[in-house]
Write a structure and sequence with these properties.
By secondary structure, the protein is an all-alpha fold. About 80% of the residues lie in helices and about 0% in strands. It has 16 helices and no strands.
Length: about 280
C-alpha cells in the first residue's frame, strides 16, 4: 500500500478526499483513521486538521445514524498519533489512548441510543434459556441492565481501542516506508513498557476498581497486550524465525484466552527484565 500512501502525501487535496470517501464507505473507517494518523504523524496536528475533519465529519454522520465506532476510531487514532509524534514513545501513546477509550466507555458513548433494555428484551424473546438466566440474576439482586450496559460498552470500547491502535500502526508503517524504511519494524520490535509505565497502568486499574470506574480497569491492560505482542515480534525477529510463527501466534491469540494471559504475563516480566535485550546479548 506504499504507492497509495505516497499518493496521499503528495498534497492535502488527495488526503482530504481519500479520508472523506473512506469514512463514508461502510467498514472502511479504519482506512480513514489510518490516513488521518499518517498525515498527523508526518506534518503535525495543525497542518493535518483538514484531513482529520474530512475523516471526522462523515464519521460523525454515521454516529447520528447510530454507529459511533467510526468516529471514535478516528479520534483515538489521531490522539495517539499526536502523542506519538510529540513524545516519540509508543508506550505513552498507548496509555493516553487507553485512558481516552476508558473515558468514552464510562460516559456511555458506546451504549446504543435506546439503552440495552430493548436488546435484553429481544434476547429474552428469542431464547427461553437466556430469559431464565436473566430472571435468576435479577432474583439474586443483580442489576442485569446495568451489567449488560457495562459489557456492551466495555467490549465495544475494547474493540475500538484495538482497532485504533491498528490504524495508528498502519499510519506509522506508511510513514516509515516512505521516509524511514525499516524504521517501523525496529520501533515496534523494541516497544516495551518501562517499570514506571507499568506502575502507572497498575495504579490506574486499581483506581478504577476502587472508585467504581470499571471501564478504567478494563482498558488499562490494552497497552500491556500491545507490548506483549511487540515482544513476540521482537523475539521472532531476533531469532530470525519463519514468518509462519507469527501466523500461528496470532491464530492462538485470537482463538484462545490462555494465550492472551500468557502474552500479558510476558509483557509484565519484560517490563522489568528486558527479555529482548538479554536474548540479543546471549546471541
Amino acid at each position: 500500500m506504499l504507492p497509495f500512501a505516497r499518493w496521499l502525501m503528495r498534497g492535502a487535496p488527495q488526503a482530504v478526499a481519500a479520508a472523506a470517501i473512506a469514512a463514508l464507505v461502510p467498514w472502511l473507517f479504519w482506512l480513514s483513521a489510518a490516513i488521518a494518523a499518517l498525515v498527523t504523524l508526518r506534518r503535525g496536528m495543525s497542518p493535518a486538521l483538514p484531513v482529520i475533519l474530512a475523516a471526522a465529519l462523515p464519521a460523525g454522520w454515521w454516529w447520528m445514524q447510530g454507529d459511533v465506532i467510526p468516529l471514535a476510531c478516528v479520534l483515538l487514532a489521531t490522539l495517539m498519533a499526536v502523542v506519538l509524534r510529540a513524545r516519540a514513545s509508543w508506550s505513552e501513546a498507548l496509555i493516553v489512548g487507553a485512558l481516552a477509550a476508558a473515558g468514552m466507555v464510562q460516559l456511555g458513548v458506546f451504549v446504543p441510543p435506546g439503552g440495552v433494555g430493548p436488546l435484553l428484551e429481544q434476547l429474552r424473546q428469542s431464547s427461553a434459556e437466556v430469559d431464565a438466566m436473566l430472571r435468576e440474576l435479577a432474583n439474586q439482586g443483580i442489576a442485569t441492565e446495568q451489567v449488560a450496559t457495562l459489557l456492551v460498552g466495555g467490549v465495544t470500547g475494547l474493540m475500538v481501542s484495538l482497532a485504533a491502535v491498528g490504524c495508528l500502526a498502519l499510519g506509522r508503517a506508511w510513514q516509515a516506508g516512505l521516509y524511514n524504511p525499516g524504521g517501523f519494524r525496529e520501533e515496534f520490535h523494541g516497544l516495551r513498557l518501562a517499570p514506571r509505565e507499568f506502575a502507572i497502568l497498575l495504579a490506574l486499574g486499581i483506581m478504577g476498581l476502587a472508585l467504581g470506574l470499571p471501564a478504567l480497569a478494563m482498558l488499562t491492560w490494552v497497552p500491556l497486550l500491545i507490548a506483549g505482542i511487540a515482544l513476540i515480534h521482537g523475539i521472532i525477529g531476533i531469532k530470525g524465525m519463519n514468518g509462519l510463527w507469527l501466523v500461528a501466534f496470532y491464530v492462538l491469540l485470537i482463538a484462545t484466552w490462555p494465550t492472551i494471559l500468557i502474552v500479558l504475563l510476558l509483557a509484565v516480566i519484560d517490563s522489568f527484565a528486558d527479555l529482548r535485550g538479554r536474548l540479543a546479548r546471549s546471541d
